[in-house]
Structure formats: structure tokens, C-alpha cells
């Protein structure tokens, strides 16, 4: 899988392959620079590379080369991790870094958008799941429908802003990888800060309320609107998990949704 691109782009292998559900990655050297060769096995990953090119290194990793399902990316070599920060007493600062990076990505560019997916299409799995399971999912679906019917502050979206997709690029700062190429209300991109299941404290209501204050201030979002997006996104996440099925992860997402919905009632 990697061999044709190693030859074509004059790359030198610089580590062990990394296999994910949607791509195959190999650390390499390109013109003596650390890079990451990524070969997508999922259509969304392929389209994400187009968005990475569109950002042109502003808020995201540079794209050095791109052909079909393969993309050669600038590689993060910094030692810092937002997930480690969030779990080691720097949760607030990690959230601020996520917000600042998202703001850079949302800034308008004077060039055509690479055929993005509208949020209405991204949410297409939520309503059927709400009809099947009811309860919290039905509440989340109603909130999502209201948001999608009245969009504000439209922007090109990353679609998967979380602690593992914003990496330390040392002198270049914190930069994004692995976008989903969406378009819609920018508030959507801040919801996932509250929904990263790798972070055990996401179901702690006290932590949730503290981060709500921090993220709404840093992102310049009305707290109520942010709560609505958190509920909508968490419902969508739960719907996806139930479809796999991954019951434990679905229940975590639903717990976050319930916290957001409860806050909306206060």
C-alpha cells in the first residue's frame, strides 16, 4: 500500500505503520522533513485531505503532496498532548487551545470551498435513531432540527475537533489534522470538546459547567446555543454508537446529552 508513494515522492520510512479504521499511516522523511504518509480507506478521509489543502497550513498541518487516496502531511513532532493536559490539571487551557485552533480554521478564505458536506446531511442518522429509541435521543433530535432550521455564523468546519485531532507542531503551534469537510454553523465544532470519550471526566456535571463557561467565552458563543449544539452532537454520536453497536460508548454520549439538556432547563 505504501510502496508506490514511497517511490513516487522519494520518501524514507521513519517508523512503524499505524492502522486505523479509516486509514493506513506511515511516518516518513520527505526532503529531510518529518512527514506522515496517509492512505485513506474511507471516503470521508479522502475528502478531508482536500480541506487540509484548502487551509494551506493555516491552523492545520501542511499538505506536501496529494494524489487520490494518499496524502503526505507535515508530521507533528512536539511532545505535548491536549488529552494529557486535560487529564493532568490543565483541562481549562486545553479547551482554550482547542477553541483558538477552531477559530483559525473557521476564518474565511478567498478561494472556493472544496465541495463541503452540509450539516443537515451529517445529521441524517439522528432522526431515524430518535424514532427507534425515543427518550433522550428524541430530545436531541428536536434540538438538532431547530438548530439546522435556523443556522447562524456559517463557516467551513473541521467536523471532529477533539483533544486527539489538535497536535503539537512545536514552533508552528497547535494544528489540526483529520477534518471531516463540513459546512454549517461554527458552534457545531465546539460541541465535541465536551464529548471526547477518551476523557473520563466528560460525564462530570461540575466539569461540564466549568468548561461551558470557558468555551463559550473563548469561542464567543452564547452559552444556550452552545448547550444546544452539545445536546445535538451528543445525540448524533450516540446514534452512531448504537448503530455499531457500541452500547457503553452510546451511554456515555447520552449522559453528556442529558447534562446539556438539563442545563438548558435551568
From TrEMBL:
Residues forming coiled coils: none
Keywords: Kinase, Transferase
Protein name stated in the entry: 3'-kinase
Single Gene Ontology BP annotation: secondary metabolic process
Organism of derivation: Rhizobium chutanense
GO molecular function ontology, one term from the record: kinase activity
Source lineage: Bacteria, Pseudomonadati, Pseudomonadota, Alphaproteobacteria, Hyphomicrobiales
Amino acid at each position: 500500500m505504501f510502496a508506490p508513494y514511497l517511490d513516487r515522492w522519494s520518501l524514507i520510512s521513519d517508523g512503524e505503520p499505524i492502522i486505523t479504521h479509516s486509514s493506513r499511516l506511515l511516518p516518513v522523511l520527505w526532503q529531510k522533513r518529518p512527514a506522515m504518509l496517509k492512505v485513506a480507506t474511507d471516503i470521508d478521509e479522502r475528502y478531508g485531505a482536500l480541506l487540509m489543502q484548502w487551509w494551506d497550513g493555516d491552523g492545520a498541518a501542511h499538505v506536501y503532496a496529494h494524489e487520490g487516496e494518499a496524502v503526505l502531511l507535515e508530521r507533528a513532532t512536539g511532545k505535548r498532548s491536549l488529552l494529557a493536559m486535560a487529564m493532568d490539571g490543565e483541562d481549562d487551557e486545553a479547551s482554550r487551545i482547542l477553541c483558538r485552533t477552531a477559530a483559525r480554521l473557521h476564518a474565511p478564505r478567498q478561494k472556493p470551498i472544496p465541495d463541503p458536506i452540509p450539516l443537515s446531511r451529517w445529521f441524517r442518522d439522528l432522526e431515524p435513531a430518535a424514532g427507534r429509541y425515543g427518550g433522550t435521543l428524541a430530545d436531541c433530535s428536536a434540538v438538532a432540527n431547530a438548530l439546522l432550521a435556523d443556522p447562524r455564523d456559517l463557516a467551513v468546519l473541521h467536523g471532529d475537533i477533539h483533544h486527539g485531532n489538535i497536535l503539537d507542531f512545536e514552533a508552528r503551534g497547535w494544528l489540526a489534522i483529520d477534518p471531516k469537510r463540513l459546512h454549517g454553523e461554527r458552534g457545531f465544532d465546539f460541541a465535541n470538546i465536551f464529548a471526547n470519550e477518551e476523557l473520563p471526566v466528560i460525564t462530570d456535571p461540575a466539569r461540564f459547567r466549568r468548561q461551558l463557561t470557558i468555551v463559550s467565552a473563548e469561542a464567543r458563543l452564547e452559552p444556550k446555543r452552545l448547550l444546544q449544539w452539545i445536546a445535538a452532537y451528543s445525540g448524533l454520536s450516540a446514534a452512531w454508537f448504537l448503530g455499531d453497536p457500541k452500547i457503553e460508548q452510546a451511554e456515555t454520549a447520552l449522559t453528556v446529552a442529558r447534562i446539556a439538556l438539563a442545563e438548558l432547563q435551568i
